[in-house]
Write a structure and sequence with these properties.
402 residues; mainly alpha; three-stranded antiparallel β-sheet; binds acetyl coenzyme *A; Citrate synthase; citrate synthase activity; transferase
Length: 402
């Protein structure tokens, strides 16, 4: 194979690939994805199997350490994570400093970045494996606490501290939906749906946010700073922000009279910037395997929780129309994972602007695994080239003469 890194020195040429549509940036042993066949595997295990048989914590272990844990390994991992769920009390002051209506993704990125100030061991670029492991555990453990406190603060409700007798997902849901004085009974249907959603989002190879984590980490920036950057990348509506955008779009269509054909026509009109949110994917060109699993989970949750949501009808109409419309068929635009995740999050009782934060909670193990792999592989600092198309050399013109 040609060594692309030497191409410029040998020929004077560089590869120009805006959006990195065909550029591999790393060799990775974490996630296998075949966009044509709709296959997704973590460390060799099919996403369908993991979603139906595993838990989010076990999948986190698998992604980060490469193998499914034994019973003992899983128990030790769980116990270690539980020991670190509290965040420094001074971090609560951050929540007071932000306006209560701040978008939770802005807060999440700031708070995760701020962890490096409270846990400065993370700054050691040459940490031992054990020290690095501690930072990984700290982040996994503290993320649900941070996420739930962001939510509680946005409501003006008292914060709920972690209950370490609960498992990871139940503890998280308790901090979100519980009362301060008592532990709330969290419906197992909710726990199971949340586990599935988090597993489905746990990694997706070199997408925008993961590439961001790797490239920031390649400068030897610490884990918290790298993940904070990944959170910012995830925020955009073309990436993780799509789940929020989907529900907002469905509500808009509903309030506009529910005429799906009109909105599909808008999406097809090249003079209209509107896109059908939740449709299309850079790599899945036949179907998104996560969408299949989540669609099933979505139907189950709505049925079990007895929810009759009018936006769901709009969603079904859009899905049908788009799957039969030549515009979408020719361009291979299918509903992606985020088309359905928002509907479940809404059914579970989360407000729309929390959806992308939940995606971040799910993606965390993947980001961590990719950051670790980048370090283990001793990857060089990420530094793309460019093709300069600006002005040729010119003389400076004094201000008075311009
Ligand atoms: N609605 C209408 N048309 C679309 C859509 C859409 N959702 N997505 C793509 N197209 C059209 C484009 O206009 C383009 O048409 P053209 O060939 O006539 O110019 C063609 O399909 C190809 O689109 P690209 O933008 O080149 O595809 P790309 O791979 O760059 O983008 C993306 C993928 C960003 C996901 C895109 O499909 C999109 O914007 N979807 C909506 C947002 C969304 O759901 N994002 C979530 C992605 S999943 C995730 O991050 C977890």
């Amino acid at each position: 194979a040609i060594d692309i890194s030497k191409l410029r020195d040998q020929t004077g040429y560089i590869t120009l690939d805006p959006g990195f549509k065909n550029t591999g940036a790393a060799k990775s042993a974490i996630t296998f994805l075949d966009g044509e066949k709709g296959i997704l595997r973590y460390r060799g295990y099919a996403i369908e199997e993991l979603a139906s048989k595993s838990t989010f914590v076990e999948v986190a272990y698998l992604l980060i350490y490469g193998e499914l844990p034994t019973g003992n390994e899983l128990e030790t991992f769980r116990m270690t994570v539980r020991r670190h769920t509290l965040i420094h009390e001074d971090m609560k002051k951050f929540f007071d400093g932000f306006p209560s209506k701040s978008h939770p993704m802005g807060l999440l990125s700031a708070l995760v970045g701020a962890l490096s100030a409270f846990y400065p061991e993370s700054l050691n670029a040459h940490a031992t494996e054990e020290e690095e492991d501690l930072t990984v555990i700290q982040l996994l453990a503290k993320m649900p606490t941070i996420v739930s406190w962001i939510y509680k603060k946005s409501l003006g409700h008292p914060l709920i501290y972690p209950s370490n007798d609960l498992d990871y997902v139940t503890n998280f849901l308790n901090m979100i939906f519980g009362q301060r004085t008592e532990q709330t009974e969290i419906d197992p249907v909710m726990v199971s749906a949340m586990n599935t959603l988090l597993i489905l989002h746990a990694d997706h190879e070199q997408n925008c946010s993961t590439s961001t984590v790797r490239i920031v980490g390649s400068s030897q920036a610490n884990l918290f700073a790298s993940i904070s950057a990944g959170i910012s990348a995830l925020w955009g509506p073309l990436h993780g922000g799509a789940n929020q955008a989907v529900i907002e779009m469905l509500e808009k269509i509903k309030n506009d009279g529910g005429d799906c054909d009109k909105w599909i026509a808008k999406a097809k009109d090249k003079n209209d910037p509107f896109r059908l949110m939740g449709f299309g994917h850079r790599v899945y060109k036949n179907f998104d395997p996560r969408a299949k699993i989540i669609k099933k989970a979505c139907d189950e949750v709505l049925e079990k929780l007895g929810i009759n949501d009018p936006v769901l009808e709009i969603a079904k109409k859009l899905e049908n129309a788009a799957l039969n419309d030549p515009y979408f068929i020719e361009r291979k635009l299918y509903p992606n994972v985020d088309f359905y995740s928002g509907i479940i999050y809404r059914a579970l009782g989360f407000p729309t602007d929390m959806f992308t934060v939940l995606f971040a909670l799910g993606r965390l193990p993947g980001w961590i695994a990719q950051w670790r792999e980048m370090r283990t592989n001793k990857e060089p600092i990420g530094r793309p080239r460019q093709v300069y198309v600006g002005a040729p050399e010119r003389n400076y013109v004094d201000l008075a003469k311009r």
